[in-house]
Design goal:
The complex is a heterodimer of chains A (147) and B (106). Chain A has 147 residues and is an alpha+beta fold. Chain A has 2 helices and 9 strands. Chain A is globular and about 55 Å long. The chains are: A alpha+beta (147), B mainly beta (106). Chains A and B meet through strand 6 and strand 7 of A and strand 3, strand 5 and strand 6 of B.
Chain lengths: 147, 106
């Protein structure tokens, strides 16, 4: 009996870190909390496009699009992007409105390591939506000495 | 002083959603990298990018050191009336740049 309990306990401990909360390092979780407070983002409506394999981390194309009619009563107010392993967890925060017509933002970012990127959209009804993507980086940004 | 490239349509039909792309030359020095003397190079980034259409806010972005050098931004806006889109970049060390683009709406 004891051994069975012990085995069950070990299994629980092994399984736990695979949950969504543990997949995000603390700094990113903190940074996300600063932006969305205690709200829980719902997965979906957000599409995060970033190449899965990146040769050079110093310039990585990134595109975020959110499904939204972009009307006065129902639109995306903001799009935030976070990372796990750069020196700082924030990447950018973009402000949009009904005038945007389309909730799509593109830019190029730096990645210091292979990691997970998270995009969070805030809609006009006060809800948050999210999407994540894993990126493998073969040559990291920020490490080379400047000339 | 700084080189700016903007790609936006010259004309649009009323109600069209147009894409505006903007690129500016800037080192986006992170403040985490050592220079040749081993000392950290001080941070020098663009912190904020804004766009207005005839004075009305259409887009804004707060940037971090994780934005690549020579920041590129693309976004969309609904063409409501002919006018001037003003793009502004501001950042560390008093950096400020501005670019105007005229869009005619029929």
């Amino acid at each position: 009996m004891d051994r069975r309990l012990f085995l069950a306990g070990t299994a629980a401990i092994i399984v736990l870190p695979l949950g969504p909360a543990a997949a995000t390092p603390d700094a990113m979780t903190e940074a996300i909390k600063k932006v969305i407070g205690n709200a829980t983002p719902t997965e979906g409506r957000v599409k995060l496009e970033v190449p899965p394999l990146v040769e050079n981390g110093s310039t990585v194309p990134l595109n975020v699009s959110v499904e939204s009619p972009m009307t006065d009563s129902d639109h995306v107010k903001a799009i935030h992007v976070f990372n796990e392993k750069n020196p700082q967890p924030n990447v950018f925060s973009a402000r949009l409105g009904p005038r945007s017509g389309k909730a799509v933002v593109g830019t190029r970012i730096k990645l210091g390591d292979s990691q997970r990127i998270v995009a969070i959209a805030e809609t006009s009804d006060g809800r948050f939506w999210s999407a994540g993507a894993d990126v493998i980086v073969t040559l990291a940004a920020c490490l080379e000495e400047s000339p | 002083m700084s080189n700016i490239l903007v790609n936006a349509p010259k004309t649009a039909r009323r109600g069209d959603v147009v894409e505006i792309k903007a690129l500016i030359m800037h080192p986006m020095e992170t403040g985490f990298r050592p220079g040749p003397n081993g000392r950290i190079i001080p941070r020098n980034i663009i912190e904020r990018f804004t766009a207005t259409w005839n004075g009305a806010d259409i887009f804004a972005m707060d940037m971090s050191p994780a934005i690549a050098a020579n920041p590129f931004v693309s976004f969309f806006a609904e063409a409501k009336e002919s006018g001037t889109v003003v793009l502004r970049w501001t950042g560390d060390e008093g950096f400020a740049a501005e670019q105007r683009v005229d869009i005619a709406v029929e």
